[in-house]
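Sanity check

After download, print the first record. It should look like this:
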Amino acid sequence: MDLDDRISSYRALQTRDTRFDGRLFIGVTSTGIYCRPICPARTARIENCEFYPSAAAAQQQGFRPCLRCRPESAPGGGAWRGSSDTVARALALFADAGLHDEAGLAFVAARLQVSTRQLRRLFQQHLGASPVSVLQTRRILFAKQLIHETRLPMTSVAMAAGFGSVRRFNETFKAMYQRPPGALRRDAGIAAEGEEMELRLRYQPPYDWPAMLATCRALPGVAVVSEREYRRSVRSGAASGTVRVWHDPARHCLKVGVRLSDVRALPDVIERVQRRFDTAADIHAINTHLSLDSLLAPLVVQRPGLRAPGRWDDFETDVLALLSVHAGDGWRGASVALVALCGEALPEALGLPGLGHTFPDPGRGAAADLSALPIAPSGRAALKALAQAAQRDGAAFVRHDSDAFACDDPGLLGRSAAWRPWRAYAAQHLFHSPMKTFIIQQEEIA
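Expected structure tokens:
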């Protein structure tokens, strides 16, 4: 890092600038601890500070996480900031497949059609650490978040965070925090079986919650949208359950309540919530970039907290899109019928009002008799083919494309090249704009 970068990074620390939270981590050589730039502790001298682009980079250099500012609480978990689509997709694939170590690197590299060497180089370039270091850091910080914010037993915390054994979990925490994990818990109470786990997902403010909530689609039995929260059934592997999401603007976070039949599915569910509600966006960098365009600048000023919502599940979204084509206005009834035919019933202890089934997975869709589905035979055949293809391809990669931009105005489409890699955010601003000089084809998101 050159002198100018060190000075600007140190100024962010001195002023506790929230714009850098999750983008910058500071290792203090005199204490061996690394912090977020908003840490309330007394600011260290600049000669005692080392600056890192990720928590993993700081931990790779031997620094321990600060117990005051809690790096696991940084927006996006401090796991990913940057513009490399390959790194972002790799992290999502690691999370989707539940991979935490070197063994999964070749699998992810092959899915992304890059070499393992290239993937390591990109992680080092954008995050300052190797893929394994990033994954291990994310696992440790997620476990610490569970210790602080839930009443899960330590055995369940270890399982949810992906540790192979409680012994390994205890050893890791003693080495990292110089105390056993139980000593980090303020509340000694233990959650009852089936109790809702409540976690906080921090974001960089501002956040336009009403606009985001408006992108959520209700589906009887599967998803409910109220004035203040979104709740839905969830499925991850063999596990099922429910999730609630609501906004806590005072703490700059979304609160997430989760009930699961298997706590090991928790990381996948949280990852999906983060992607669906775009909590890890570097909104200040995005707004600054889009504001360089005179068309977008006033729109960004009007609604600076707009985000680009992601999909909860590719297969679910594609099925609902197919049903809307083949059933028209009757797509909702066809969806309810499909869920009744091959959805999985939720255990009564895990249900919430209005939620009774999970949306069918590709395997159930491929095996089901769809003859009773109230759509044309061609639609049933297309749905069967979609389910068979998704089943054949294995675990789907859940997309959140920050550069997605569908537009039928040639002039606007050409202009949009300068908005990359954040055209999806530009589309949100245009979609909410009163101007009528363009047509944005806004995809409905499940």
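If your output differs, re-run the checksum step. Summary of this record's structure: The chain has four domains: 3-69, 85-184, 193-280+313-393, 291-306+398-446.
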